[in-house]
C-alpha cells in the first residue's frame, strides 16, 4: 500500500509553499522507507519552487538534503536495516549501466539521473523531496550517516557538503596546496571546513570582512575583502585552486588573475547571466575554468565518513515547517548563518 504523509509543497512560482499530503510509493523489494528527521533548505529549492531556472513541474515538494532513520526495508535490502541513521542527497536513481554510473559518477548519468524532486522517474512518475515526513528510496541511493555527526548538522552535507568535497578532492586540495573559497555562505562555510581538514592552506574571498571571525573559526588561514581592489593586486598568481560558491555574476577575469600556473577556478554557483571571460585570462599561467556538480554515491559516502572523522557539520538554524516561506526570503536576502534546516517533526498534525 502507498503511504500518505504530510509535506510542504510549491503550487506556483509566485505562491507561498503550503502544507499538504502526498503519497509515497509501495515499498519494493530493494526499497528503504525513511522517517525524515531534518531537511536542509538549499538555494536550489528556492530556484525550483519559484521556477527561476524554468522547467518546474507543479506541485512540487522540494528538499534534497535529507537526514533521518530507516523505518522499514524491502525483502531484498542488504545495505540498511531498521533504525539505521541515513541520508538522501540530490538524486534517487540512475541507469546504472553507463560509463558514468559504473564509475560512481551517477550525477553525470548519460541516460539521465533521477533528481530527488521535480524529476521524472524511469516509470514516469514525478519525484517529491524532503520537506515531508517520509520518503521511499532504492537502497543504492541511501547513504549511511556515521555516529560522529548529528542528523541535523548532517542534513546539509547531503548537498552542500558533497558539492564542495567533490571538487576539492578532484583538484587535489591538500597539504602544500593554496585554496581560495569565494563566498562564506551555505556552501562556502562547509568548503572552508573541508579544505582545512584536507590540509590545504585556505583563504576566504568575501565582499567584506564582516564574517572574518567565523571564517577563521571554520579553519581559514586568511580572509580578504573583494570590495577592496588591493586584494586582487596582493593575491595575484597566488592560488592553485579557487572554488566559486556564489550565484551572482562576478568579474571572473579578476579572479582568474589570482591563479598560479596551471591553477583552476571551479564554478559551483549558477548565476543569472552567461559567464564572461577574456581569452588572455586563461592563456596567462595556463589557467583553467571548470564546473562541478555534487558527487556520486561513493564520493558522498566518503564525504560523510570524512566529516564524521573530522567533526564537520553545517552551521545551522533549525526552523519549523511553518517558517519555510520566511526562511526562503531570508536566504535570498543572505540573512542566514549558514543553513536553514527544517525539523520535520513539526509537519505532524
UniProtKB/TrEMBL annotation:
Domain of life, source organism: Bacteria
Pfam families given in the database record: ADH_N, ADH_zinc_N
Enzyme kind, highest EC tier: oxidoreductase
Chemical reaction(s) catalysed: a primary alcohol + NADP(+) = an aldehyde + NADPH + H(+)
Names of the cofactor(s): Zn(2+)
Keyword presence, Nucleus: no
Span of domain Enoyl reductase (ER): 15-342
Name of the featured protein: alcohol dehydrogenase (NADP(+))
Organism: Gordonia jacobaea
